[in-house]
Amino acid sequence: MTTRQIWQLESRPEGNDFVSAIRLVEEQIPPLADGEVLVKNIYLSMDAGTRMWMTAREDGYNPPLPLGSPITGLTMGYVAASNAAGFAEGDLVRGFGQWSDQSVVHAELGGLFKLDDSVEDIRQHFGVLGMNGWTALWGLIETAKIQPGENVLVSAAAGSTGMLACQIAKILGCNVYGLAGGAEKCRWLEDEIGITKAIDYKTADIGAELGQIQDGINAYFDNVAGPILDAVLPNMALYGRIALCGLMAQYSGDGRARGPEHFDQILMKRLSVIGFFSPDFMDQGERLTAQLKTWLDDSKLQMPFDVTEGLENTLDAYERLFTGANIGKVLVKL
């Protein structure tokens, strides 16, 4: 029986202190059960939503990871062995595996997805063509129901989902505004992506800046909630829509966040607030990928990658998500 290196949750992290809570260990790879696939990982995806799984919070969209268990996340690699119909040795796949050099993934329960290995940059299966792209497209079209000419605001706009939401909204004919942390990110959003305006939430008076948007915000793609949502609500247009897909402002906490300070604006402006996340559109992957690939092939979408090399450096990469050090998709290359 061969072994693998794998990151294991030893305790609940405090803030961004992942080093004290997560340990790299070596273990034997168990025999594959029916429906399971062994994947030799080539990339690990660093995603902020996994932070909630590390807390003791019981009412999240996934139960908390038990202490002593492997850290789970999206991985990409080649099938090394298969005990699942439809997957053969050598297939390029993406699914919910483990932060490890080799993942054991249940093909159905782990959302294993066979990938097109002819794509020029296979990292885009974690970018434009991956969950971030799916989330951005679904949230804008199906949840926020954006229309040409509308004012669309995106939080965490320089993150991997946010920047794709900005680009897709622009493709669909909207006036796009982004919230990002730091002058460099804001310049990048305006100069490289070409959004209407980027606002630095670290230094700007967010409410005052949003108040200058003529006719208000028709649709808000929210990745963070928290105090930023408080600033957005009074600046929404009548009958505006909020598509909420992330809670970055509270991922590290075990308790509930208080309600928005300007909750009354939901009534006064007749707003729709709808939460959504990946289980809502997992069965639509092929359709979403087809549309995203058309835009990617036409050079209408771009995704920069923030790559850290080496499994042993995974926690350094993960921390970049929460310190704002990255522009674009954070990956670990094995």
From TrEMBL:
<dbReference type="InterPro" id="IPR041694">
    <property type="entry name" value="ADH_N_2"/>
</dbReference>
<keyword id="KW-0560">Oxidoreductase</keyword>
<protein>
    <submittedName>
        <fullName>NADP-dependent oxidoreductase</fullName>
    </submittedName>
</protein>
<dbReference type="InterPro" id="IPR036291">
    <property type="entry name" value="NAD(P)-bd_dom_sf"/>
</dbReference>
<dbReference type="InterPro" id="IPR020843">
    <property type="entry name" value="ER"/>
</dbReference>
<dbReference type="Pfam" id="PF16884">
    <property type="entry name" value="ADH_N_2"/>
</dbReference>
<dbReference type="InterPro" id="IPR045010">
    <property type="entry name" value="MDR_fam"/>
</dbReference>
<feature type="domain" description="Enoyl reductase (ER)">
    <location>
        <begin position="17"/>
        <end position="332"/>
    </location>
</feature>
<dbReference type="InterPro" id="IPR013149">
    <property type="entry name" value="ADH-like_C"/>
</dbReference>
<dbReference type="GO" id="GO:0016628">
    <property type="term" value="F:oxidoreductase activity, acting on the CH-CH group of donors, NAD or NADP as acceptor"/>
</dbReference>
<dbReference type="InterPro" id="IPR011032">
    <property type="entry name" value="GroES-like_sf"/>
</dbReference>
<dbReference type="Pfam" id="PF00107">
    <property type="entry name" value="ADH_zinc_N"/>
</dbReference>
